[in-house]
Design goal:
eight-stranded antiparallel beta barrel; 1 helix
Length: 141
């Protein structure tokens, strides 16, 4: 039982930490940053943003057709700038301080690709079986 709990804890440590942000008008969201994508969960829904190329290797810029998010801004990397395609002015959000006694998670991309959905089932794909033909004696004895 303890081993299962320890393994579950190790798996959780390898995942990207949840970074909570507070925006104007009382809106907020949580972000998980990966080397190739960012997952945003907020009061207005869920967004998956692909990482954008940048001149700076450590820049954390993610986006899609409607939103660009620039994480790690400010002196202590507590700010994120959200630029929406339909809104001319960017929205700046501030990172929420962690609970008392908890160290703040660093604002950086997790060193692994983000979670992806498996490809859809292909009915024409070859099926691996344990049936063999021509590999020698397949009968009893």
């Amino acid at each position: 039982m303890i081993v299962i709990g320890a393994l579950a804890g190790c798996a959780a440590l390898r995942d990207a930490p949840r970074l909570a942000y507070q925006c104007p008008q009382g809106l907020g969201f949580e972000a998980r940053l990966y080397e190739d994508m960012a997952l945003l969960d907020g009061q207005r829904g869920h967004a998956v943003l692909e990482r954008r190329p940048s001149q700076q290797a450590d820049a954390l810029i993610y986006g899609d057709a409607t939103l660009t998010a620039d994480f790690g801004l400010g002196v202590d990397q507590r700010l994120v700038r959200l630029s929406y395609a339909g809104i001319p002015e960017a929205v700046t959000c501030t990172r929420v301080a962690p609970a008392a006694g908890q160290p703040p998670a660093p604002v950086r991309a997790a060193p692994r690709p983000g979670p992806r959905n498996p490809p859809p089932y292909d009915p024409d794909a070859p099926v691996e079986t344990n049936i063999r033909f021509g590999d020698g004696n397949v009968g009893p004895g």
